[in-house]
Fold this protein.
Amino acid sequence: MTVTHVPARPFWLVILLTCWLGAAAHAFDDEGNLDEMDEVRPGELSYEDIPVDDRIFERPWTSVPFNTAFFDYTPEEIEARWDELMAGIRAPFPSPGYLEYMISNYPEIVEGVEAFNGDYEEFSRRNIHVWRLFLRGDLQQAREEGIQLGVMGLYPAMFAQTLYAIYLSERQTEKYMMLQDVANRVRDNFHLLDRAENDPIAAELVAFTKLGYAYALGRIAEESPVPVIVFRRYIGKIKGGAEEVVDLIPDHPLGHAFRAGVDAGIMRRVGRATGRITYGARSTVVDESFRKAFEMAPDIPILNYEYANALIYMSRKRDLELAYEYLDRATHFTPQWSMDALDTMYAFKRLQEVRLFDQHYRSFRAFERHRRRFSRVTDHNLTNVLSPPLTMDMMENPEQYTLPPLE
């Protein structure tokens, strides 16, 4: 077993953060009760990077809940449809010419890569094959083959891992470790960014790097206690990365949506006023960023369900009907590849979760508190599309749904 550790912060800093956040983050809910959802477990403030147990990559992963043949495109079809398939994420196509330019100018991207022998045509075919695995939903194989191709193969590999972590990992702890591993591996290539940032040919790859890193941390932060979010400096890393993506690629649809989602997520956790004053989170930024994203790519499922989430995070029940509309819309798209399919499935699950909130909770904060408590008590990953949607029995009796410890 390999576990990655980061040196602990000084003890005095842990105490200072805990005391300060006791007043600032352990706010009271809408009914005047002390908010329990930001309670910190022992040890959570002792590391900045979540320790990763490499056994999660050695076990067989759960298969996607659809026939991968639906999205099994030939290499020729992938090249012809690349711009359509990548409309949201804007990943660069690994053509022989592109690879030759990148490797010639940034040779470290193939340092120690046995799969590259100077033949750009063959290296392109191998990279396209990894994307083919990812597009059709063979996520573990895409990861394993992608990381053998250096930096270029790392991107579809880590994208596949992110998709698996969010939508198919059963446990919250496993999800967090997988996302942390993505952030770690992408961060290891940050040394390339300074050199490549002003290169227009490399701009999409740089933006993809920043988006992947910030998105992985964002998915950890959205369910973490506020003291942990502050201690690990998630907001600065995530918000800064989101802004850099749209600075590099102004017409990046998911870059704008992620930028909006960051501000909405901050408001979800600390409220509008604290979010605006402390972190610069503004509803006007959310509205404008989503407007730009929808102008560029209106038919992406994740864009629609994230906008629905943002409406709830900012306005609670005031815009709930509009949130329902966008969640329902997200469930009706015809998927073009594995990410679309899993996004659509999650939108359906999220729709049922929002109905639970609407029907049984007066307070959004109480709903969030119960939801987060269920996940922390049971270790269930609530974004797993294979697990049943939340019910009131689950929310009220989480101890009855606890997953057994990992061996």
